[in-house]
Every structure is written in structure tokens, then in C-alpha cells.
């Protein structure tokens, strides 16, 4: 919410010398965090100037310019460092300025920017030679001063309802010295999206008495009559228990002056608040919305039917909004329509945006002003469904004061009558009724218990009264609090307690670091994640974080089969980007983007890893999960359905190495990464966490079918895969050839028993080592052969190492030789060579029986 400080000063006692940065800090202490400052952007001399002479000159480029003599005041006319181009017989000093605009005449007061000034956009002004003259400054337009988008002509003060004398500061006259503070309004505090709301916060913060300009008890409102413009609310079927519109106020104005324009002071405030002036009627509705927080809409009475109807959309209906976009409507959309006479059309998406059919225009003299109260959830869903966020929808979906409609409608009507003539009709429509206020019982002692500060009943009463609540004392330290109508976010006693803490100042709450409970610390999952991350970082991987959003094109690029479970994505109802509407089912699908980005920025060798959640729609019921109203406590059976509708989100680790795994240097040429690097990474991850894992060859996308490994845990679960990516995958994704990658399921790892504990005694007897080389089929996995040797060797085998692999001419085709070192140790004796040899022979015998292994001599 942009808060022009000079506008805020209309409602509270804001000293002229208020430091905006100090004010921002004070607002932050009560929950209104500073987003930005919009301060004076113009420096140097910007003054009122009177046009003394104007000579039109046509030039060879076809352009007609004005050579002007302007009076900029004695101080600036006589400046020694700004030489003039005086004319013979000139009565008084002046400046000569070239101007291309033609909307002014001799005698007009304009705004002149003199040499040495700097305009928005760091545009410095200097005297320069042009069109045969020395132009000693610039006569300014609205756009050049950052006051709007109009660039059709320069500023003529009388057109803005302003006056002055030559040499007066135009910065002060035009309000260009004002500061606007932009504060972040949280979604539950819609009342702060108005000057009324911000002024209340300021008054409470400073201990000032606040007069609520939006209260029906203070402001003047119209009394409802029977002859008001007919309005019918046809929302008989609530959606999820929400009635779309509970109150609709309409007032009528006739005889508006079609030539009336928005006064400059209002335009200036609208621009400072971030809105573009359009026309008087529209500007007044926007002004009142910013002032009070109630969105308004004005309809041309001559274009309306005989009555306004509020209803839900019908299936298949379409409507073209003011932005000229035709929208297909949903039965949940709330509409403003008309019927009777020439009516029978949709005239607006309620609380979001109107249509062009009944829009006020330059010929409009009679209008109907709408000030309705719409259901926040209905408006929020419509705005998101149509991707159409507006200033009105922002306020309605955060909660608008249901009692504000009559006040805002009358305030808008009074401004239009004042600025555009016309007559306010006494005929007033008010359909529906504002809800009854919420009354909450509050235990004063509970406030201190939750906040950590001892508040007295008087202090609590003072703070709650300041936010607009009515407080009555009860029995035994209790208070009966009537919540103000604009605070729809306050529904329970804890909300009142939060208000006491907030308005007293969050900075006053003591910070006490609680002592950790003995024996508590990181969970086993947290410890495991740290171990894995530390291991990968030590191996040279860099940890990164990618967004979890993807698309079906990525599945195609990774060559996933049509029936692959990894194609069963969860589709987002409101994605951040239309190109990424799906949640990832694998980390590699998003991690590859970061690898490609690094290579695009000049990296040659990349090793990245990521730990994060993935999700899948596999196993989920069709359609959305169960919905319940706030405050409803589901039964056990309903909870089961709710949990069943929540997708599984396992935690994965994935890593990619592209380029060299060992960098070149004085020690050698370096080494390119290959499948064994990532396979070894996964094996060491399992070993570091005390988990036994077996490795098997596998064929699965996106890996190369002959260079991929599957890791299987003791209980049969698949831990993950590792290997070289398929050449086509590398080509599709823009990765270097022979890029390698791994991905594992951490949740599957955590489900295993940690085997790192040792219950037995350490043997003090020496080891006996035996080596053996076995010839086996080339496609037999080393892991499988090693497991067989362990089984055959018996319990006294302490360690089994693979130290050589040979394939060559000395072996038959389709065969390979694997050399193993077997380390034996007994717990109760020294093993003899014959004992160790016997155990080795038992191991090789079992390998021969199962795999046809032959001992290589």
C-alpha cells in the first residue's frame, strides 16, 4: 500500500518535519514493513514561468516550434551564469526557451526547468543551441515531471486550477517535494489497504485520538428508500457455504457536467498512490477506494437495464472485460448483470473488473454508484481463475468492512457533485444486511501468558479500544470484546492477544532463548542429510537449489516411457509460469537446468548436487480431496480420506558431473567423469550411513542402457540409479556428451537398519590374505560375483576387495577377468595358510557352481 504522507496528514496530526525513514521503522514495529520509498526525484531550479513572447517558426524538417521569452522571476532572470538571448527593446530580463508544444499562449503561467536541474530518470537540464537559438532551459509536460503519462502538451497552471508568480518554486506548488511510503500489507489485514486504515494505525502508534471517517456514526450516509434503483441478489446457492454478496448499496447522480475534469490535487494523490488518472468519475471512485478501502463502480444509467441483478455465472457463459479479453466463465464466478428494458447482459465480474457495455464515458451525465460487499473467497477464486488481479479484487479477497458501503457511496457522490455539478438523488438502494459483529470473551491473564509481558486489564482495554473494538469488563479478570466490523481477521481470543502484542510494539517483547531439552537434537533424518551433503561437498560437488516445477516436454527430453510412473505429475491449479505447470517427480528433471545454465555462463567442468522433495500423483484418488469449513473437526474416517488425497513426497538426492572429475594441471591431463564415479558415490553414501546395498546392471531412462546401475537395499527396495546419461538425453538437454548422474531415495535409505554398530570383540590375531583371479562372463556384475565369494568364504572373511579388471586378447570373447583380495581373520586363533587356502577354495567353488567362474592362472 502506497501511503502519500501529505494525504495521511489530512487524517492525523503528522508533523511536517516527520522523517519518513523513522516513520517506516515505527510502522515496521507494529507489523507494517517498509517496501520502498518514493521521494523527491527532481533537484535544482524548477519554477513558475510566465510566457512573455511566443514566435512560431517552421523548419526544414517539417516541424513547427515555438521560440519563447519567459519570465522566471528576478532571481533566475538575472543569473550571471545563465546568459540570455535578449531582444532589442526588451523591457525586463527573461529567458529564451525552445518548446515544441502548442497548447499555451502568451500570458500563460507554465513550469520551466532551468539549467542545473535534474528530472526523473537522471535527465540533466542544460542550456543548448538548437533551431538557431540558445534554449536556456525546458518548459515541462506532465510526463517529464513524473506526474503522469500525458505528453500531448506542457503544463499550463490554470488548467490544473493552480496559480503563482514567476520565480515561485514549482516543486512545492506541484507537490513534487512529497514523500510516499510503500508498506507491505499482510493478506489478513485488508483494512490497511486504505488511508483510513493506515491513519488508524498511525493514530494508535502515536497515542492520538482517531476520528473514523468511515464510520456510519460519523460520516453522512443516505437513508435507504423504496424508490432506489432496483437491485436483486440471486445468489440462492452458496458455494462451499459462502454467499457471494450480502449487501448492495446504490446511489444515483444526475446532471453531471461532461466537461468537468479531475482536479490536479486528486490526480497528484492518485499518481502518488500508484494509480493512473483516467476520467473524473473513475478517478473519484478510485480516490474513495484508496481513502476508505471500499471498491466502487459507476454505471451509466442510460446504458443500464431496468434493474441490476447479482448472480452466479451459468456454464458456458462468456464475458468481455474492460481489458478487451473475452473470458469463459465458471459457475462459481459472481456476476453483476442487468435485465429489463434494453438490459439482459453481463456488466461486470463482481469485485474484480467491469465491462465496456455500461462504462461511463465522455457523454455520461447520469450514473449509478455501486458499493457492494462481496464474499472474499468467491472474489479470490475468480481473480485467480481468470488471472485478473485488480485493486478492487485485492481488497475484497482480503476483507472489506461490510458496513462501509453506504458511507463510501455517499462520499463518492458528494465529491462528484462538488467537482462535476449534478444532483444527488435521495432515492437510495440498500439490499441485504451487514453481518452482526463478533463478540469474544478474553481472559486478561492469558494475554500475558502468551506474549510474555504482564498486561493490566486497563492496558489491554486501551489497546483494543484503539483498534476500534468495544470492550466491556466481565467477571474474574475477563473482558467482553466486540470486534470492529472491518477486522474480519479477528475470530478468536488469540487474535485479540496478537493485536495487543502488535499495537504495543513487537520490539517490546523480550527475547529469551529457550534451553534445549536434554537428549534432544537433530533427528536421524537431519543427521543423515548432513552426512550425505558433507560427503558430496567433500567430493567436489556444489550444492544447489532448483525450483520444483517442470513440464511434460522435460519427460520427453529425458526419454521416459509413456507408462513410466515418473510421468504421473501433480498439475498446479495456479502455476507461477504457464510453461512449468507440473510438480517434479525426479530431481534430475530440474537439476539439469542448472548444469546447462552453468555451461552457458562459461563453466567447463561442473559437479552439482541437490537434496529436495519430489511428488507424484500415482495412487491419488481422482478429483480434489475433501473440503471442510474452517473450524470443523473431521472424523477419523474423514481424516483418512484427507490423508489419502495428499501426495507422497519422498526426499531425494541427485547429482550430475559434466566434464572433468579430476582437473588437469601440472600433475597430469586430468580425467573425464564416467559412470564408475557416480556409482562409487552412491555406494559410499550407503556405506557412510551403515547400509548394505547391492549393485545391478539396469536399463532405465534417462541413463545409457549399458552404463547404468541400480542399487537395491536389503529389504528389496530400490535405493536409486547411477550411471552415464543416454547420448540422446544429453543432446536433448544441451548437456556435454557422456555426462553422468545419480539419483537416490533418501526415505528408502532411512527405512533400513544401520549396520555400523559392533557388538562383538575385536580380534587380536593377525590376518591372512589370499588373492584369486576369476574368469567370468563379461555381463556378470562384479557385485554379484563378490556376494557369492563372501557367502562361500564363510564368517572368517573380514574384507573382500576388487583390485583388477582385465579384458583382452588373452581371454575368450565375451569373458572378463576379475581379481579379488580376500582378507581372513579368526577371533580365537592364528589362521594357518592351509586354513585360508581352504576358505578361498570354498569361495571359488561356489562361484564356479553359480556363475561358471574359472580360476585364472
Automatic annotation (TrEMBL):
UniProt main location, coarse: cytoplasm
Annotated protein name in UniProt: Phenylalanine--tRNA ligase beta subunit
Record localization: Cytoplasm
Keywords: Aminoacyl-tRNA synthetase, ATP-binding, Cytoplasm, Ligase, Magnesium, Metal-binding, Nucleotide-binding, Protein biosynthesis, RNA-binding, tRNA-binding
Limits of the TRNA-binding domain: 40-168
Residues the entry annotates as binding Mg(2+): 489, 495, 498-499
Cofactor: Mg(2+)
Recorded family membership: Belongs to the phenylalanyl-tRNA synthetase beta subunit family. Type 1 subfamily.
Gene3D superfamilies named in the record: 3.30.56.10, Bira Bifunctional Protein, Domain 2, Ferrodoxin-fold anticodon-binding domain, Nucleic acid-binding proteins, Phenylalanyl-trna Synthetase, Chain B, domain 3
Residues of the B5 domain: 435-511
Organism domain of life: Bacteria
Species this protein is from: Brevibacterium antiquum
Keyword ATP-binding attached: yes
Cofactor note: Binds 2 magnesium ions per tetramer.
Region (Disordered) residue spans: 74-94
GO biological process, one term: phenylalanyl-tRNA aminoacylation
GO CC term, one of those recorded: phenylalanine-tRNA ligase complex
Pfam families, sorted: B3_4, B5, FDX-ACB, tRNA_synthFbeta
Amino acid at each position: 500500500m502506497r501511503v502519500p504522507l501529505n494525504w495521511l496528514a489530512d487524517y492525523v496530526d503528522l508533523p511536517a518535519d516527520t522523517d519518513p525513514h523513522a516513520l517506516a521503522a515505527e510502522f515496521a514495529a507494529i507489523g507494517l514493513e517498509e517496501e520502498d520509498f518514493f521521494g523527491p526525484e527532481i533537484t535544482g531550479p524548477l519554477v513558475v514561468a510566465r510566457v512573455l513572447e511566443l514566435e512560431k517558426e517552421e523548419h526544414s524538417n517539417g516541424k513547427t516550434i515555438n521560440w519563447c521569452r519567459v519570465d522566471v522571476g528576478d532571481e533566475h532572470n538575472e543569473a550571471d551564469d545563465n546568459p540570455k538571448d535578449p531582444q532589442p527593446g526588451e523591457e525586463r530580463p527573461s529567458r529564451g526557451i525552445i518548446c515544441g508544444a502548442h497548447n499555451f499562449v502568451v500570458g500563460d503561467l507554465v513550469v520551466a526547468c532551468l539549467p542545473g536541474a535534474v528530472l526523473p530518470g537522471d535527465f540533466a537540464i542544460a542550456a543548448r543551441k538548437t533551431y538557431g537559438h540558445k534554449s536556456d532551459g525546458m518548459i515541462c509536460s506532465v510526463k517529464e515531471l513524473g506526474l503522469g503519462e500525458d505528453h500531448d502538451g506542457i503544463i499550463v497552471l490554470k488548467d490544473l486550477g493552480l496559480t503563482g508568480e514567476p520565480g515561485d518554486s514549482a516543486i512545492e506548488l506541484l507537490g513534487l517535494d512529497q514523500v510516499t511510503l510503500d508498506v507491505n500489507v499482510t493478506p489478513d489485514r485488508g483494512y490497511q489497504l486504505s488511508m483510513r486504515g493506515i491513519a488508524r494505525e498511525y493514530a494508535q502508534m502515536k497515542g492520538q485520538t482517531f476520528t473514523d471517517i468511515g464510520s456510519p456514526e460519523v460520516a453522512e450516509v443516505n437513508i435507504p428508500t423504496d424508490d432506489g434503483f432496483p437491485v436483486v441478489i440471486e445468489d440462492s446457492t452458496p458455494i462451499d457455504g459462502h454467499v457471494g454478496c450480502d449487501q448492495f448499496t446504490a446511489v444515483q447522480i444526475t446532471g453531471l457536467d461532461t466537461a468537468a475534469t479531475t482536479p490536479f490535487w486528486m490526480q497528484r494523490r492518485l499518481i502518488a498512490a500508484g494509480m493512473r488518472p483516467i476520467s473524473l468519475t473513475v478517478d473519484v471512485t478510485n480516490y474513495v477506494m484508496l481513502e476508505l478501502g471500499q471498491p466502487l463502480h459507476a454505471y451509466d444509467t442510460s446504458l443500464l437495464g431496468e434493474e441490476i441483478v447479482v448472480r452466479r455465472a451459468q456454464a458456458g457463459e462468456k464475458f468481455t472485460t474492460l481489458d478487451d479479453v473475452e473470458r469463459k466463465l465458471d459457475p462459481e464466478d459472481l456476476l453483476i448483470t442487468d435485465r429489463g428494458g434494453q438490459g439482459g447482459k453481463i456488466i461486470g465480474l463482481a469485485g474484480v473488473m467491469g465491462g465496456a457495455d455500461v462504462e461511463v464515458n465522455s457523454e455520461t451525465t447520469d450514473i449509478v454508484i455501486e458499493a457492494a460487499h462481496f464474499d472474499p473467497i468467491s472474489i479470490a477464486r475468480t481473480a485467480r481463475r481468470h488471472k485478473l488481479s485488480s485493486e478492487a479484487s485485492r481488497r475484497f479477497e482480503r476483507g472489506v468492512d461490510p458496513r462501509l458501503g453506504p458511507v463510501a457511496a455517499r462520499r463518492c457522490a458528494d465529491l462528484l457533485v462538488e467537482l462535476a455539478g449534478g444532483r444527488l438523488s435521495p432515492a437510495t438502494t440498500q439490499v441485504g444486511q451487514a453481518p452482526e459483529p463478533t463478540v469474544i470473551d478474553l481472559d486478561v491473564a492469558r494475554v500475558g501468558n502468551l506474549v510474555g509481558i504482564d498486561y493490566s486489564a486497563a492496558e489491554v482495554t486501551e489497546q483494543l479500544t484503539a483498534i476500534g473494538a468495544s470492550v466491556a469488563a466481565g467477571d474474574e479478570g475477563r473482558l467482553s470484546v466486540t470486534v470492529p466490523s472491518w477486522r474480519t481477521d479477528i475470530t478468536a481470543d488469540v487474535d485479540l492477544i496478537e493485536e495487543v502484542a502488535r499495537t504495543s510494539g513487537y520490539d517490546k517483547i523480550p527475547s529469551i532463548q529457550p534451553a534445549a531439552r536434554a537428549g534432544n537434537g537433530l533427528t536421524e533424518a537431519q543427521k543423515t542429510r548432513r552426512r550425505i551433503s558433507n560427503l558430496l561437498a567433500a567430493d567436489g560437488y556444489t550444492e544447489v537449489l532448483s525450483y520444483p516445477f517442470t513440464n511434460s516436454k522435460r519427460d520427453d527430453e529425458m526419454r521416459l516411457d509413456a507408462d513410466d510412473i515418473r510421468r504421473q505429475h501433480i498439475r498446479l491449479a495456479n502455476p507461477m509460469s504457464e510453461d512449468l505447470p507440473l510438480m517434479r517427480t525426479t530431481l534430475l528433471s530440474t537439476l539439469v537446468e542448472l548444469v546447462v545454465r552453468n555451461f552457458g555462463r562459461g563453466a567447463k567442468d561442473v559437479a552439482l548436487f541437490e537434496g529436495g522433495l519430489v511428488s507424484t500423483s500415482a495412487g491419488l484418488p481422482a478429483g480434489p480431496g475433501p473440503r471442510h469449513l474452517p473450524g470443523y473437526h473431521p472424523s477419523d474416517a474423514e481424516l483418512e480420506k484427507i490423508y489419502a488425497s495428499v501426495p507422497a513426497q519422498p526426499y531425494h538426492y541427485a547429482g550430475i558431473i559434466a566434464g572433468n572429475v579430476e582437473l588437469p594441471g601440472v600433475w597430469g591431463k586430468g580425467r573425464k567423469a564416467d559412470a564408475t564415479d557416480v556409482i562409487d558415490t552412491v555406494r559410499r553414501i550407503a556405506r557412510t550411513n551403515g547400509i548394505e546395498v547391492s549393485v545391478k546392471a539396469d536399463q532405465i531412462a534417462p541413463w545409457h542402457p549399458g552404463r547404468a546401475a541400480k542399487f537395491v537395499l536389503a529389504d528389496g527396495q530400490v535405493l536409486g540409479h547411477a550411471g552415464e546419461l543416454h547420448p540422446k538425453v544429453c543432446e536433448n538437454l544441451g548437456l556435454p556428451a557422456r555426462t553422468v548422474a545419480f539419483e537416490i531415495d533418501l526415505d528408502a535409505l532411512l527405512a533400513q537398519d544401520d549396520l555400523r554398530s559392533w557388538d562383538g570383540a575385536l580380534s587380536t590375531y593377525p590376518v591372512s590374505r589370499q588373492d584369486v583371479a576369476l574368469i567370468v562372463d563379461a555381463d556378470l556384475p562384479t557385485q554379484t560375483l563378490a556376494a557369492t565369494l563372501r557367502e562361500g568364504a564363510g564368517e572368517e572373511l573380514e574384507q573382500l576387495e576388487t583390485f583388477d579388471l582385465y579384458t583382452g586378447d588373452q581371454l575368450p570373447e565375451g569373458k572378463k577377468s576379475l581379481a579379488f583380495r580376500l582378507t581372513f581373520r579368526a577371533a580365537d586363533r592364528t589362521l594357518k595358510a592351509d586354513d585360508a587356502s581352504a576358505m578361498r577354495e570354498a569361495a571359488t567353488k561356489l562361484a564356479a557352481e553359480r556363475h561358471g567362474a574359472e580360476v585364472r592362472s
